[in-house]
């Protein structure tokens, strides 16, 4: 492979967020046309196909497209036919709204010995908002699977995948990515992929409609910090030249419904590609954490890895935020997350370990949803301990990785989320019940440890 701009190639991946990259399968050197995109006849007699991720006329800073040089074009397929939706939905009116704090126990992964479930049949929509047809909205899905996708290939709107248990070997038209827990990957709109799993596997998906994830602006932080562009990894070209009559199934999530089409050729027949519209992965351990070193809290936007912007300045359809291991050093400060009510929706998940504000109940593979203006914060036990703690420098969140999908949209929860999954924790609200008044109307001086 070779990369234009600042891309660095490790052999397995090209590095750099949003770079203009180029990659050829080493079995076919020179597969990329030189000096033009559309020669009359392409090298190795391949077909040229453009995949556009943005309107042709978007400004350069947001213009996304890639050119794929493939054995047969994507159009070589039988008609799409409607297939069983399983637990995938975009119906946000299945059940009535629920403004309560919601928390889920770990979502159960089906046992391979009982039922084989692959990534697509194991997709469960938990919550979401907005409208697919107008390209405005998002959905949160949980995937629970135990079997690789066998000669089936999926085509979804833009997704960010957060595996929690088990590795994902993701085949894409652009090449292969191995994504392990504590890594995330983004597969952008229209990109075909297939996922192999190696055990009972679980994870979270943030789907956004019609927009792309970007790195957040850094403002006064400067040129470096948070998720650095060089740490994003893009696969290198890899193809399989397989033809089996009717042997391959492409599953298309179109306007929220699932369709399938048969074809004779593997969709992973791209011998070379170039462009800036690609899938990518990122290791969350590379996140450079910024935080308060004096007193009080920076708002959690300081932990934003990727953002999918709305058209309103500063307002996201979805932010992907993490709470990584770090030092807590703030003086004269209540250090856990503060009590708050937020105009945004906050879905949280836990990849591993214990979340700092709640030692029990919020477990790896589970989740929580705090909807707009729904109050939340540390449980009573956490408040009592943190109010009395000696404020020495301490490690926070070692061995853990919690994350948040935050949205300016008010998300509805699906029937699966509230009922069918059987994972909703009916007792969540009780973690705040022991909170008691410490009010001392006749004494202003706080009865703290110092
Ligand atoms: Fe919150």
Automatic annotation (TrEMBL):
<feature type="binding site">
    <location>
        <position position="376"/>
    </location>
    <ligand>
        <name>Fe cation</name>
    </ligand>
</feature>
<keyword id="KW-0408">Iron</keyword>
<feature type="active site" description="Proton acceptor">
    <location>
        <position position="297"/>
    </location>
</feature>
<dbReference type="InterPro" id="IPR011051">
    <property type="entry name" value="RmlC_Cupin_sf"/>
</dbReference>
<dbReference type="Pfam" id="PF20510">
    <property type="entry name" value="HgmA_N"/>
</dbReference>
<dbReference type="GO" id="GO:0006572">
    <property type="term" value="P:L-tyrosine catabolic process"/>
</dbReference>
<feature type="binding site">
    <location>
        <position position="355"/>
    </location>
    <ligand>
        <name>homogentisate</name>
    </ligand>
</feature>
<feature type="binding site">
    <location>
        <position position="376"/>
    </location>
    <ligand>
        <name>homogentisate</name>
    </ligand>
</feature>
<comment type="pathway">
    <text>Amino-acid degradation; L-phenylalanine degradation; acetoacetate and fumarate from L-phenylalanine: step 4/6.</text>
</comment>
<keyword id="KW-0223">Dioxygenase</keyword>
<dbReference type="Pfam" id="PF04209">
    <property type="entry name" value="HgmA_C"/>
</dbReference>
<keyword id="KW-0560">Oxidoreductase</keyword>
<feature type="domain" description="Homogentisate 1,2-dioxygenase N-terminal">
    <location>
        <begin position="13"/>
        <end position="284"/>
    </location>
</feature>
<feature type="binding site">
    <location>
        <position position="346"/>
    </location>
    <ligand>
        <name>homogentisate</name>
    </ligand>
</feature>
<dbReference type="InterPro" id="IPR046452">
    <property type="entry name" value="HgmA_N"/>
</dbReference>
<comment type="similarity">
    <text>Belongs to the homogentisate dioxygenase family.</text>
</comment>
<comment type="function">
    <text>Catalyzes the conversion of homogentisate to maleylacetoacetate.</text>
</comment>
<feature type="binding site">
    <location>
        <position position="340"/>
    </location>
    <ligand>
        <name>Fe cation</name>
    </ligand>
</feature>
<keyword id="KW-0479">Metal-binding</keyword>
<protein>
    <recommendedName>
        <fullName>Homogentisate 1,2-dioxygenase</fullName>
        <ecNumber>1.13.11.5</ecNumber>
    </recommendedName>
</protein>
<dbReference type="GO" id="GO:0046872">
    <property type="term" value="F:metal ion binding"/>
</dbReference>
<keyword id="KW-0585">Phenylalanine catabolism</keyword>
<dbReference type="GO" id="GO:0004411">
    <property type="term" value="F:homogentisate 1,2-dioxygenase activity"/>
</dbReference>
<comment type="subunit">
    <text>Homohexamer arranged as a dimer of trimers.</text>
</comment>
<keyword id="KW-0828">Tyrosine catabolism</keyword>
<dbReference type="GO" id="GO:0006559">
    <property type="term" value="P:L-phenylalanine catabolic process"/>
</dbReference>
<dbReference type="InterPro" id="IPR046451">
    <property type="entry name" value="HgmA_C"/>
</dbReference>
<dbReference type="InterPro" id="IPR005708">
    <property type="entry name" value="Homogentis_dOase"/>
</dbReference>
<feature type="domain" description="Homogentisate 1,2-dioxygenase C-terminal">
    <location>
        <begin position="286"/>
        <end position="439"/>
    </location>
</feature>
<dbReference type="InterPro" id="IPR014710">
    <property type="entry name" value="RmlC-like_jellyroll"/>
</dbReference>
């Amino acid at each position: 492979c070779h990369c234009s701009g600042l891309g660095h190639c490790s052999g397995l991946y090209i590095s750099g967020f949003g770079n203009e990259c180029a990659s050829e399968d080493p079995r076919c050197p020179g597969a990329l046309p030189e000096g033009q995109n559309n020669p009359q006849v392409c090298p190795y007699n391949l077909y040229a196909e453009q995949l556009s991720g943005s309107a042709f006329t978007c400004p350069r800073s947001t213009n996304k497209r890639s050119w794929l040089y493939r054995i047969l074009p994507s159009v070589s397929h039988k008609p799409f036919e409607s297939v069983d939706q399983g637990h995938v939905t975009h119906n946000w009116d299945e059940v009535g709204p629920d403004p309560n704090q919601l928390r889920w126990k770990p979502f159960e992964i089906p046992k391979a010995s009982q039922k084989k479930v692959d990534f697509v049949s194991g997709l469960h929509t938990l919550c979401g908002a907005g409208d697919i047809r107008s390209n405005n909205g998002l959905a949160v899905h949980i995937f629970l699977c135990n079997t690789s996708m066998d000669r089936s290939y999926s085509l979804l709107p833009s997704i960010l995948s957060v595996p929690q248990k088990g590795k994902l070997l993701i085949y894409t038209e652009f090449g292969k990515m191995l994504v392990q827990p504590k890594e995330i990957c983004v597969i952008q709109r229209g990109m075909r992929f297939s996922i192999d799993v190696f055990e009972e596997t679980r994870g979270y998906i943030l789907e956004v409609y019609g927009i792309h994830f970007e790195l957040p602006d850094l403002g006064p932080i400067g040129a470096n910090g948070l998720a650095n562009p060089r740490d994003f990894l893009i696969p290198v070209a890899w193809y399989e030249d397989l033809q089996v009559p009717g042997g391959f199934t492409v599953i298309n999530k179109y306007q929220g419904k699932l369709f399938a089409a048969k074809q004779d050729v593997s969709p992973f027949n791209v011998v070379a590609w170039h462009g800036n519209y690609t899938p990518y992965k990122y290791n969350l351990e590379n996140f450079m954490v910024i935080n308060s070193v004096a007193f009080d809290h920076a708002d959690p936007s300081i932990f934003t890895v990727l953002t999918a912007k709305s058209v309103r300045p500063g307002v996201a359809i979805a932010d992907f935020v993490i709470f990584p291991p770090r030092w807590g050093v703030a003086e004269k400060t209540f250090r856990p997350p503060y009590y708050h009510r937020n105009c945004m929706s906050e879905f949280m998940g836990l990849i591993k370990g214990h979340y700092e504000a709640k030692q029990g109940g919020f477990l790896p593979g589970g989740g929580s949803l705090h909807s707009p203006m729904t109050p939340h914060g540390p449980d009573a036990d956490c408040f009592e301990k943190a109010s009395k703690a000696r404020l020495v420098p301490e490690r926070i969140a070692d061995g853990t990785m919690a994350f948040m999908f935050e949205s300016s949209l008010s998300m509805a929860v699906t029937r699966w989320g509230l009922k069918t999954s059987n994972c909703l924790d009916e007792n969540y609200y009780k973690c705040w019940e022991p909170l008691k008044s410490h009010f001392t109307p006749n004494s202003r001086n706080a009865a703290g440890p110092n």
